[in-house]
Design goal:
Elements lengths: L13 E3 L19 H10 L4 H8 E4 L2 E4 L25 H5 L4 H4 L2 H8 L9 E3 L1 H10 L6
Antiparallel strand pairs: 1-4, 2-3
The structure holds iron/sulfur cluster.
Iron/sulfur cluster (SF4) binds next to loops.
Length: 144
Amino acid sequence: MDFLSDKPWWSEGLFFGCLGCGRCCRGEPGAIWFTEREEALLAARLGLDRDAFRRRFVTGRYGRPSIVERRGGECALLDEAGNRCNVYAVRPLQCRLFPFWPSVLRSRLAWEEESRRCPGMNGGKFYPPWLIGRLLAAAPFGDL
Ligand code: SF4
C-alpha cells in the first residue's frame, strides 16, 4: 500500500508473461493447495479415484492438503522429463493465479524477490490494476 495515496503499490499495473520454464513448479518446498472440487478434477484427469489420488499425490502443508513434492521441491504432477504440468488443463487455481498471489503482491519488495525466481515477471503482457485486483480477489486462500 502507498500510505500517502491509499493506493496499492501496484496501482500503475504490472507486467507478466509466463515463459514456461517450470521454475515455479520446482525449487524450495512450498504448498500446492487445492479445493475439494479441484481434487476431484485432478483425480479424474489422472484416471484415479479420490482415495488412490490421495495416497499417491496428497500430503499436508501448513494445515491443509497439498500436492506431494519430489526431492528438491518439484511438484509431483510435473512431467519429470520436461517442464510440462501433467494436469495443466485442470491445474488448481493457485497455480493459475501465480504470480498474482496475496503474498507476492503484498509489497514491491516481495514482488521483486519473487521475480528473481520467475523470469516471466516484469516482462510480457501488461496487467492493469483492475485486473490485478480481480486476480487478487480470486485467491482461494487468503494466506496464499
Ligand atoms: S517461473 Fe514464471 S516464467 Fe517460469 S513457468 Fe513459472 S510463471 Fe512461467
